[in-house]
């Protein structure tokens, strides 16, 4: 089972791909899609659709895992992030991939063991779980964490 | 100049197309894209992309006008609406259409003359301005109002 985790953000969208076979998890790839400076929202959305499409075509995942949007931020950035997230969900659904959603609490619990973990702890635990050589960048680490969460919990109802 | 106005919503996405030549506005078409009952978010997003694509292919607009998201609603429906909106912007941008954005105040002012107008007043004024036979449904009326707003104000900076 190959899982694509995605962390959609208004400036950086992280992604990470893992394989699950039995209880064993294997790292496949990870990276970040960054908005170019001063680009329009419409350009950002087109870039994300295209680059995510390339990641999917290259890695051929069977399922996608996303973290819920965190409600604590200001409304303007919440709206921007949700707009990106809509295109991310569409990009996966348009390629026939089921998308599953986990709360930040579920994702953090899956990798760190408790829900209040900080970004750096997530990076450290993702590195340990997937036996990476170095710390993955923060948004890619969050995406890998979402993938690990799906590998552990395997929700049945896609969004 | 042919303008497509869109009112993206979590349940209903209204659209309306008008022609502007000089100061004269002509109604072309309008309608609503409704989410099927119990459909998944990913299905809703795919339906909107596909149906909006058909509207664009059929009517061949040169520019798109959207109303800003209204901040007053609850966060859950705000996020859902913004996710739809992201796909709407992407669907237009992917077809090479520039997307312009107006505040609810600007849109209401463009059709009713003041910013606190109610839904029904917008429907009545849109009907009058475009010489329609009947009241358009509320979400299509909002979309036509956004198109009328773009016809009047013609912002220069797309989103």
**Count of domains of chain A:** 1
Count of distinct strands of chain A: 5
The number of distinct helices of chain A, counting runs of at least 4 residues, comes to: 5
Spell out the helices and strands of chain A N to C.
Answer: EEEHEHEHHH
Considering DSSP H and I runs of 4 or more, what fraction of the residues of chain A is helical?
40-55%
Name given to the CATH architecture of chain A: 2-Layer Sandwich
Task: Report the radius of gyration of chain A as a whole number of Å.
Answer: 14 Å
- In CATH terms, the superfamily of chain A is Ribonuclease H-like superfamily/Ribonuclease H
Query: Most extensive interface, residues per chain?
Result: A-B, 29 and 29 residues
Report on the biggest sheet of chain A: 5 strands, mixed
Report mean pLDDT of chain A, rounded to a whole number. Answer: 93
Question: DSSP strand (E) fraction of chain A?
Answer: 15-25%
Residue runs with pLDDT of under 50 for 5 or more positions of chain A:
none
- Which CATH C-level class of chain A is it? Alpha Beta
Using the coordinates shown, work out and report the CATH topology of chain A: Nucleotidyltransferase, domain 5
Oligomeric state of the chains in view: homodimer
């Amino acid at each position: 089972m190959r899982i694509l985790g995605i962390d959609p953000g208004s400036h950086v969208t992280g992604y990470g791909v893992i394989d699950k076979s039995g209880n064993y998890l294997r790292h496949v790839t990870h990276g970040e899609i960054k908005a170019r400076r001063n680009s329009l929202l419409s350009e950002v959305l087109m870039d994300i659709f295209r680059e995510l499409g390339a990641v999917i075509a290259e890695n051929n995942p069977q399922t996608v895992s996303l973290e819920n949007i965190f409600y604590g931020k200001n409304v303007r950035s919440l709206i921007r992030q949700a707009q990106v997230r809509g295109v991310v969900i569409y990009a996966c659904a348009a390629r026939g991939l089921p998308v599953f959603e986990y709360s930040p609490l579920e994702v953090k619990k899956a990798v760190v063991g408790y829900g209040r973990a900080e970004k750096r702890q997530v990076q450290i635990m993702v590195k340990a779980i997937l036996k990476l050589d170095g710390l993955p960048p923060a948004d890619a680490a969050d995406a890998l964490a979402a993938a690990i969460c799906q590998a552990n919990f395997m929700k049945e109802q896609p969004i």
